[in-house]
Amino acid sequence: MSCSTHFAGHTIVHRLDPRPRIVATLVFAILVALSRHYPALCAGLAVGALLALLARLPAPPLAKRLLRVNGFMLVLLLLLPVTSPGDPMFTILHLPFSREGVHMATVITLKANAIVLAFTALLGTVELAALGHAFHHLRVPGKLVHLFLFTLRYLDVLHHAYLGLLRAMKARAFRPRMNLHTYRSYGSLMAMLLVRSLERAERVMDAMKCRGFKGRFLTYRHFAFHRRDAVFCLVSTLVLILFVCIEWIPGGGLP
Amino acid sequence: MSDEPLLNLHSLSFSHTDAEPVLAEVDLALRAGERIGLQGAIGSGKTTLLHLVVGLLAPDRGRIEIFGKPRREEHDFWEVRERVGLLFQDPDDQLFCPTVEEDVAFGPLNQGKSREAAHHAVHEALALVGMAGLEHRITHHLSGGEKRLVSLATLLAMHPDVLLLDEPENGLDPPSYERVQNLLLSLPQAMIIVSHNADFLRAVTHRCLCLAGGRLQNKSW
Amino acid sequence: MHITEGVAPASVAAAGALLAAGGVVAGLRAMKDEQIPRAAIMASAIFAASLLIRLPLGPSSVHPVLNGLAGLLLGWAAVPVFLVALFLQALLFQFGGITTLGLNTVVMGAPAVLCYYGFNRSLRRCGSARAAFWLGAAAGVTALLFSFLLWAGALVLSGKSLAVIVKLALVPHLAILGVEGAFTGFVSAFLFRVYPRAFEIPRTLGTGTLS
């Protein structure tokens, strides 16, 4: 049982080197965040959807993620047209829906979905530890990479210990209710997990020092840059340039 | 007291996902005052059986009847957990409050007892396991034997009718071992005691069962 | 209390990212090598608590945010810790998002640092578990309140019309303050009694390295 699993698979996307995937995701997210017009945003959404298809993201968890984002977007779509000042586009129940509000909510929704799809398809498909090593190769500060890798290591330990203690609490007739007893019990549970983890971390650290550990992992995973990665770099660069043309060159950059 | 068993399991089956069944058609009845020993290799399903009884796991098939009522849904087990005490194999799974007193009071408070009644139950239970006076000790700093005895006290403070004990003697030093053995002999509750220690089971139980291949067999000493 | 992907316009997101970067650098410099496991435990605890712990509140339930606690136990290192926890939340569950990661790190991390300066010293010096409870509770409430203000500020900066979201969120968040305070208070009192060393952290901002 784990609360930290990536979208595993064997598609072409999964086999790509994580390093260019990280860079491509970041550049794509920044460009989409900067854009304001429908053609580019729709193109961005199409790119995201295509990546999700290529990575064969499993439908139920993907739907859950999109629902989480779009639930908020739905609130925006309902509220912004009513609360934003501007030309009324149409009226429902005497409420004027402003053109500016509709535009703003639609732009945000398109942006969010495009970025979420690309982010999930490109980075959600990397095994988490590999992501940490890729960060290291991309010159992310060493301490931050270590923090990330140690966090992954403790996640499952903590999750497991939590489930064990919670089960024992249930066996002693504990039922969460809205009262101080419940908050105190959860607080003790959390604190006990912290104390045990902190002490254990100290022991593990001592044991690692005894084996010559000096605070840093020395062996990092290395990634091979294949021809398919070169192709990915080329294609994503072209796509990103095209995206810039559509958004920022008058006439959509097309003849 | 009627002769109705407190706890009645009918052809209970359980398997973890896509694995060999851990329990296959297990029948078991526990009567008032009875102490049953349960042996079996590691992974034979002893702990699973205890967790099924208090509803921490759900069986694939079979019926669970406790205190004369069928128990199927989570809320059926709420009453069961207030009247059946489960001692976990590892006391570190059981103890989570800062002090001994708070940990022992946790169960009684869950039962809806007042602060005073819980306080009283704590003292009584700690005295019963011979740990009176340790109320304000930090649970995290107790020795292994003390943790086991406090864990037992957390159950006794709830005045259960049935005790399910998962290796209560394991890893104890000789004095604590003897203390636990005498304590169990002196308690009136019906019990199921899981252990690998045949001597211990012979000393404290009336009869002994063995789990092997998912089935329960009677075992002679 | 995350800023959802896509909501912040580029300027606001960039400002958040810059501020977060500064905080992360300061946090990494303050964090010694031996502290990395402790920081990682907090990061995984924050992540796991947001998924697993459901504190009943009225007809619904809330999860502890723990940024007050993180500040008490980590000081400046709380900022990189939130960066990691929030990145994992975005990556695995799409809480928040990649373009709002910097903003969210500031929203959670800055109040944590504030709590470190406001309450860590008094907690180390306080004489009773009761005092530790109230100091912890104050830290939990302060951190969450400050986070709410930052979150609201970021939303309003992103678009004046988004203020309506802030208004809708106001009342539920006031209720959450109480729960977070109680929870942080109980955890602090526990740590005070059982493991007071938890509140000891190197005091200075430090001139440590980044790698």
Structural class of chain A: mainly alpha
Architecture of chain B, CATH level 2?
3-Layer(aba) Sandwich
Gross morphology of chain A is flat
Termini Cα gap of chain B: 30 Å
**Could you tell me the radius of gyration of chain A in angstroms?**
24 Å
Uncertain runs of chain B: none
The beta-strand count of chain B equals 10
Averaging pLDDT over every residue of chain A, what do you get? Answer: 87
Describe the fold and architecture.
The complex is a heterotrimer of chains A (255), B (221) and C (211). Chain A has 255 residues and is mainly alpha-helical. Helices cover 71% and strands 4% of the residues of chain A. Chain A has helices at 12-15, 18-34, 38-54, 59-83, 99-122, 128-137, 142-171, 180-210, 227-248; strands spanning 88-92, 95-98. In chain A, β1 and β2 form a beta hairpin. Chain A is flat, with a radius of gyration of 24 Å. The model of chain A has no long low-confidence stretch (mean pLDDT 87). Chain B has 221 residues and is of the alpha/beta class. Chain B has one domain: P-loop containing nucleotide triphosphate hydrolases (Rossmann fold, 3-Layer(aba) Sandwich), CATH 3.40.50. Chain B contains eight helices and ten strands. In chain B, the strands form two sheets. A six-stranded mixed sheet of chain B has the order 6-7-8-3-9-10, with helices on both faces. Chain B has a four-stranded antiparallel sheet with strand order 2-1-4-5, with helices on one face. Chain B starts with 6 loop residues before the first strand and ends with a strand. Chain C has one domain: Arp2/3 complex 21 kDa subunit ARPC3. Chain C is built from seven helices and two strands; from the N terminus they run ααββααααα. In chain C, a hairpin with a 2-residue loop joins β1 (55-57) and β2. Chain C starts with 9 loop residues before the first helix and ends in a 17-residue tail after the last helix. Chains in contact: A-B, A-C, B-C. The interface between A and C is large, with 79 and 74 residues.
